[in-house]
Amino acid sequence: MSDTARSGRRGRRSVVGMGPRSVAGQVFLLQVALVVLLVLSGAVALYLQSQRDTDAEARSRSIAVAQTFAHSPGVLRALRTPDPSKVLQPVTEAGRKAAGVDFIVVMDTRGIRYTHPMPGRIGQRFVGNIGPSLAGRTYTESVNGPLGHEMQATVPVKDVRGRVTALVSAGLKVTNVNSQVDRQLPIILGAGAGALVVSTGGTALVGRRLRRQTHSLAPDEMTRMYEHHDAVLHSVREGVLIVGDDGRLLLVNDEGRRLLRLPADAEGRHLSELPGLDPETVELLASGREATDEVLFAGERLLAVNQRPTDHAGGPRGTVVTLRDTTELQALSGRAEVARERLKLLYDAGLGVGTSLDVRRTAEELARIAVPRFADFVTVDLDDGVLHGEEPAPTAGTLRRLAVHGVRADAPLYAKDQLIRYKPSTPQARGYHTGRSELVPDLSAAMGWRAQDPPRTQAVLDYGIQSLVSAPIRARGVVLGIANFYRAKRDPFDEEDLSLAEELVARAAVSVDNARRYAREHTLAVTLQRSLLPRALPEQGALDVAYRYLPARSGVSGDWFDVIPLPGGRAALAVGDVVGHGLHAAATMGRLRTAVHNFSTLDLPPDDLLSHLDDLVGRIDQDEFAAENAGEIVGATCLYAIYDPVTRRCAMARAGHPAPALVHPDGSVTYPELPAGPPLGLGGMPFRTAEMELAEGTQLVLYTDGLIEDRTRDLDEGMELLRRTLAGHPDRSPEAGCRAVLEELLPDGPRDDVALLIARTRALTADQVAEWDVPADPAAVSGLRRAVSDRLAQWGLEEAAFGMELVLSELVTNAIRYGSEPVRLRLIRDRTLIIEVADGSSTSPHLRYAATTDEGGRGLFLVQQMTERWGTRYSPQGKVIWAEMAVRPGPSDFPEVSLDSLDSFDL
Questions:
Q1: What is the reported pTM?
Q2: Do 834 and 882 touch, CB atoms closer than 8 A?
Q3: According to the CATH classification, is domain 536-761 in 3.60.40.10?
Q4: How do beta strands 478-488 and 465-475 pair?
Q5: 405-418 pLDDT, tens per residue?
Q6: pLDDT in tens, 713-724
Q7: What class, spelled out in words, does domain 769-886 have in CATH?
């Protein structure tokens, strides 16, 4: 025999993988016999069944199709249409083909067809008995119809009221049923042949796979390998379990049995039937899902579970589970977790406590950060002086409760804002005195604490609070207050908790001390600032004035305002703003306000006054800043205005300040074209004065930039909002105007200092002012005296005539002799009686004390004695000598002396 033939036979034997006497071969022959027997039995059974069930099958199929179509939701709607056949014919044909029947016929209650597979039969009477169906029943029958011998079912179609409105009949020819059965016989035979082929190939493949998986091992070798695997399985220190897909325990080693405390007969039983397994364990092991180091409590043990499915490599469905005892590791990790939580609490306290320079808010932040992560209830008590920036008392005399926070709001602790005087025996008093924290694990046994307020402390114990840590709030060696941490219905505080409480309070103490020092500085700055601002407006008749000053919510700025009476019934308005905040800004503001008062006594025009202020600010820069900070400047803005009620003229100048608003008598609001000068202290640019005439009742609105400028709006938006607020209210009083402006522009309070000044102008009427041109002749003085006396008599001020005539004689004679033309005399009746003598000379007289031998030099001395005050002011045309005399009711106290001899009195 050739080698090729032998190799071919070996190949065929390898493909089959078995001999006729081997177990595999015998199994193969058995499979062939079974397949052939099953095919024959199936064919015979199918034939007998088809003979017996032909009518039954045709009947059931007809009924099912007829009922399905009769109950279709669109049938009733189609029957109501004018032409039901048009709608139903395509639908029944599609349903007939889909259902595998020979016909579906829809007819009315008389049996007239709407549909038929043969369209020519539509409109003809139905072949069959429709009586039972008209009675509401389903009726089946075998008839010889247009298609041949048929099995048909007739079903009623009912409307919503249950009335039969139509009939549906479906059926098929009996021969078609038989033909379908006949068609199934080749399929059965083909399936049997395929099964033989598959079983042959499957047996060959299984045989080859078995040899490959066993590595051609002999039975004794496989037994020895199993014993080795079994020894390893039960000696490892990890529990191993195999759970079937149905939740039964298929395998468990000794360690797994010990960890789960399983009985000896556990294998083969369902997990839910095993004693000692809690529901969580059963749920995890029976779930079949993957798990990696998932923690599982089994009694007192903490197990790490790893679970994987067993069918990844084609094995049986189920899971293999490994268990590892991590109880001791968990204890270590638990302590590490506690340490991590404490570090996290300290970290959060560093971020969340002390977010503002407010003592109350800092205390509340400390209380909130510790609940419930560290304590159930926290209270913070501070020395009452700390709230005002003062140094705390050396002992816990009177503490104010600033914060109370807990897991519940009904704890019977002292209320917020209550003043508390702790007894020396309490942990709070001891901690405040020594500066060391006090730990009270059991409050019920702390007699010193219970002595503080027995009814209240008993209520605290009854509430469930049982442990306390009292930690002093200490900064820079000074105790500011006490923080109390309480626990209820959880583990009491221990030494580690005491250290954590001290660390928490230490972090908060720095913020509390910073807030206290800020409060002290803020109080000092506010006190200084308010002492430098006007406490009341001076008396003057030129303007009706109202004002508001609002300090910023934080810090003190240099905003200021002033109303200054000037000679001649005039009044000056000033508003300014010093750049910066704090004591320096407030002090600088006071210096500028004092300077404005001093310069106003010189009766300077607005531009000259601002020039002097500019020089002053420059000197402040030079005096207060070191050489290395020479580039820094104080910086300030100012607006200065002078209003004359006689002429109704207003002169204004500004240095870097917003322009004022003018509310006219008709209700319109304008911003005057006021020349813009540089801020004070910059120098190099002159200031210019703008002069305008104001109608009586016009309101001047002066303000600082804090009113109109904010983070949410720019300067132009603020000025437009101010204009809209002021417009349309000409009759509103200045007081009401201030209130309306602040409510509209600053509803939530100012972020920067705000100074607001609203002044309504007044005007002196013609009968309150008298003017005369004075000839350059001393003899005209007597005529002027008579004219003045007559005018005083008209005003009802005869008692002031003597003094006024004396002053008039001195001032007019002095202007004639030493001044230059033109000379004018003006008499004004306001709150005081004012006389003004103007001439074209800029030479100012001065007061001197004449010797007893001097013939002159006493004129201005007499003027000073007869009047309240006098002075000189300069104008572009020359100067004005003025004097004010108080109007005193009652008879004159002056002697009856003739003034004719004073016509030539030498000043």
A1: 0.52
A2: yes
A3: yes
A4: antiparallel
A5: 999 889 999 999 89
A6: 788 898 999 999
A7: alpha beta
Quote the strand ranges of 602-712, DSSP E. Answer: 636-644, 649-655, 661-663, 669-670, 676-677, 690-693, 699-703
Tokens 């002697």 — which residue?
895
Kind of pairing between the strands at 878-885 and 103-107: unpaired
pLDDT at position 738 over 90: yes
Q: What is the DSSP letter of 366?
A: H
Cβ atoms of 559 and 704 within 8 Å: the answer is yes
Domain 22-215: CATH class, spelled out: alpha beta
CB 498 within 8 A of CB 485: no
Please say whether the beta carbons of 359 and 519 come within 8 A: yes
CA-to-CA dists, residue 288 to 50, 275, 355, 787, angstroms: 46, 20, 52, 122
How far out from the chain centre does Cα 405 lie? 22
H helix count then E strand count, the chain: 23, 31
Q: How far apart are CA 573 and CA 392, in angstroms?
A: 44
Split at pLDDT 50, 70, 90, the class of 57 is confident
- Superfamily of domain covering 235-331: PAS domain (3.30.450.20)
Radius of gyration of the chain (CA): 57
Supply the pLDDT for residue 891: 42
Q: Which DSSP string do the residues of 514-533 spell out, in sequence order?
A: HHHHHHHHHHHHHHHHHHHS
Residue 621 in this model has a pLDDT that exceeds 80: no
Structure tokens given for 848 = 């001197």
- pLDDT > 70? residue 846: no
DSSP readout, 687-725?
---EEEE--TT-EEEEE-HHHH-BTTB-HHHHHHHHHHH
The owner of tokens 């047996």 is 203
Residue that has been written with the tokens 């009802």 in this structure: 796
Alpha carbon of 377 to those of 257, 487, 752: distances in Å?
A: 47, 7, 38
On the question of pLDDT at 647 being above 80, the answer is yes
Entry field: residues in the chain: 907
User: Virtual CA dihedral for 391, 393, 396, 402, nearest 10 degrees?
Assistant: -30
Residue 9 is predicted with a pLDDT of 40
Going by C-alpha positions, the residue among 411, 447, 442, 445 that lies closest to residue 426 is 447
* Structure confidence at residue 267 as a pLDDT band (50, 70, 90): confident
Q: How far apart are CA 807 and CA 822, in angstroms?
A: 20
Instruction: Name the phi and psi angles at 341, rounded to 5.
Output: -65, -35
Q: Where are the beta strands (DSSP E) in 228-329?
A: 239-244, 249-252, 291-298, 301-309, 318-325
- For the chain, where do the domains classified as CATH 3.30.450.20 start and end? 22-215, 235-331
CA distance 98 to 146: 21
Tens digits of per-residue pLDDT, 210-240?
Answer: 666 666 666 666 677 777 777 777 777 788 8
Per-residue pLDDT tens for 490-537? 889 988 888 888 888 888 888 888 888 877 777 776 777 676 677 778
Q: Give the pLDDT confidence score for residue 215 in this predicted structure.
A: 62
